Amino acid sequence: MSEPAVEFIGVSKSFVGRDGRRQVILDRVDFSIPPGQTTVIAGGSGQGKSVTLKLILRLLDADAGQILVGGVDITGIRGGRLEEVRTKFGVLFQGAALFDSMTVFDNVALPLRERTDKTEEQIRQQVLATLQTLDLSGHEEKFPAQLSGGMQKRVGLARALQLDPEIMLFDEPTTGLDPVMTREIYELFARTQRKLGYTAIIVSHDIPAVFSLADQVIILHDGKMDAFASPDELQWSTKPHIKDFVRTTMGELYQSQLVE
Amino acid sequence: MTDIAGKNALASLGGTGMYILADLGKMSLFLLQALRGLFRRPFRFRECVKQVHFIGAGSVLVIFFTALSTGMVLGLQGYYSLNKFGAEGMLGSAVSLTLIMELGPVLTALMVAGRAGSAMCAEIGIMRISDQIDALECMAVDPFRFFISPKFVAAIISVPLLTALFDVIGIAGGYISGVLLMGVNPGSFIEGMQQSVTNHDINLGIIKSFVFAVLVVWICTGRGYLVREIRGAGFGAESVSRVTTQAVVMASISVLIFDYLLTAIIL
User: Fold this and answer.
1) Which residues contact A4 (CB under 8 A, 6 or more apart)?
2) Is B138–A57 a contact, with Cβ atoms under 8 angstroms apart?
3) What ipTM was reported for this prediction?
4) Model pTM?
5) Which domains does chain A have, with CATH numbers?
6) Taking CA atoms, what residue in B is nearest to A160?
7) Min CA distance, B211 vs chain A (Å)?
8) Domains of chain B: which residue ranges?
9) pLDDT tens figures, B206-245
């Protein structure tokens, strides 16, 4: 079997809350994310989905354990080596995190200008081509605030894809979008992934919609995690907290399918 | 009961002490990273120019009016005080020394903190809470080199120049009110100024303006950068507004404290 794209070995993370109490988010968690596939990390709010994503990106430091990205332990590295690991990632943030004082074009061009030696003309061509595939032609000179939520997400995706990431991370990619837009965004993910072959890690609570994409599902619950090889396996799980989770998040949709 | 209350009070005092120490540590680390960012390549020259324009050129009008009114008031006040002793010939010396050594550097720094410092703090705070800084880090772009260190460069260039402008306009203001309005002899105004202002006084003013520039830009950008880690700041837009206010107050108070310290040490 090929090397996992990301692997957590005994990772713990806790925070001291504003009331001074220590809150355990992850408690010696192990999991591995196979390359080239789509893994969905789900769980109720406050169960550490976003923390897991930030740990993978080393925006947070783990209290204990190892986090391997492409076989390299990232928990101890800094400076240039950390930057090298980070260039493997493309990230679509929850609120798209576009630079609001820059135009759409400049946002998408930024990683190319900063991280490559391409000429301005090459950058221009690449950015315009990406914007075209994501249905954003004609919006290059607009500022993020002038775009709809769905368009901002697409610009965020365009920016994240510029450096050909091996691993794409999506943090709640459909928050604030209507159902039609949500489906469009997920179709777009599936299309770009088929084309570019990256490993996708999607953090979401939008369970029924996102499961059509998932190869593997990870559920975070009370600091622990359960991994399932497919959405179906999750659905048939007999663990009480998983059954609970399936019932509350997927509700009628899955139950009706079960009855059939 | 009182025993428990006492212990709680001690614990909260200790907690506050630890928080302040940790906060100071984070601010020091921030300063080190910003200074390191100055030397990382590629240097963002255009961003520096943009910031010099914002901090420097954008503040000229504010500095002009502040300096003019300060100088004119100094001229009037000085005239009335000195007139009592028949020493209005000392007016040029009094106005220029006050401006060059004290009011020029201090008021320029306070104005820059209020105008540009607050804007820098709010900008960086919003970038922090909307994940824009995380986004830069994820693209392996150092946010310090990218947009924080250029603000340091711009402040270190702009504030001393603005201070010099303040001094010149202020002295002109003193001349207007003292000589043109109150009738002090122009020759004795200029002569008194030339005789009393030494290189040492000018150096003191320049050193102060450099130190204040670093203080203002450090505190204002640092508080914005750390907006999520500041106790009692709250969340979201409210946290940015609170931290911006706090940054301007902290920067202003630090300028005043360092003004006294530098004067005491160098004078």
Assistant:
1) A32, A33, A34, A35, A68
2) yes
3) 0.84
4) 0.87
5) 36-58+88-250 (3.40.50.300)
6) B139
7) 29
8) 44-266
9) 999 999 999 999 999 999 999 988 887 778 888 999 999 9
